[in-house]
Amino acid sequence: MDYLKAIEKRVSTRNYLGIGIDKEKLSVLTDEIDDGNKKFGLSISFLEDGSNAFNTFGKSYGMFKGVRSLIVMKGPQNDIHLKEKLGYVGEKVILKATSLGLGTCWVGGSFERQNPIFAVSEGEEFVCVITIGIVAEKKSLIGNVINKIKRPKAIEAFYTSDNAVPDWFIAGINAVQKAPSARNSQKVQFSYNDCIVRASVPDSYRFDLVDLGIAKLHFELAAGGSFSLGNNSKFQR
């Protein structure tokens, strides 16, 4: 698939039709989830009907409509890179879903986190969810407001450098600019010093490391190459 096209097309969707995903598309998505789980030692799962975590008059009221299916982001509690891995794998699933014409949205707190459907096994940690499904034509009121006030940072705000940067680096930063982030904060920073690329985040908010994984994936897909795990880790091309 063309990941760069998916990056351009992806938006955060908050209004769904509330119906299931067809079997062929679901098979593609679960294969992607399984691949990520095996590669990174995670336990991400697809939940066909998680609507009751979004339907009550509470945190998600007015924020989301028609939510049915969820991707539950979880993994080993003792994995120091858990959140970064979840961000990386989850965003790759999101881009796959985008290529299939489905809508998605990262959700950290606007739902009932204590709902029994999110119970985990001993030693596991539940971090967040991704809503996924068929997009309703009409956007929710909150979705319209968020889209109107959302303004990405300028490209230059995403990185520092000690010299002129190559075109492939700028291509990576352009893709990072389009990456989703908690509270639309876009806190992940890149550096290009002595021809070495690094990515880091303050880790002052509970989802910052998830955002680090998301941003690293976007950069890798556009620039070609890969980061090692960890905050302020190096990029190899």
Automatic annotation (TrEMBL):
Tell me which UniProt keywords the record has, alphabetically.
Oxidoreductase
One Pfam family in the UniProt entry: TM1586_NiRdase
Enumerate the Gene3D superfamilies for this protein: NADH Oxidase
**Signal peptide start-end:** none
The answer to whether the entry has keyword Nucleus is no
Query: Which GO terms fall under molecular function for this chain's record?
Result: oxidoreductase activity
Q: Which residues form the Putative nitroreductase TM1586 domain?
A: 4-223
Q: Which SUPFAM superfamilies match?
A: FMN-dependent nitroreductase-like (SSF55469)
Membrane listed as a keyword: no
Alphabetical list of PANTHER family matching this protein:
NAD(P)H NITROREDUCTASE YDGI-RELATED, NADH DEHYDROGENASE_NAD(P)H NITROREDUCTASE XCC3605-RELATED
Membership in a protein family = Belongs to the nitroreductase family.
Q: Supply the name of the protein.
A: Nitroreductase family protein
Organism of origin is Ruminiclostridium hungatei
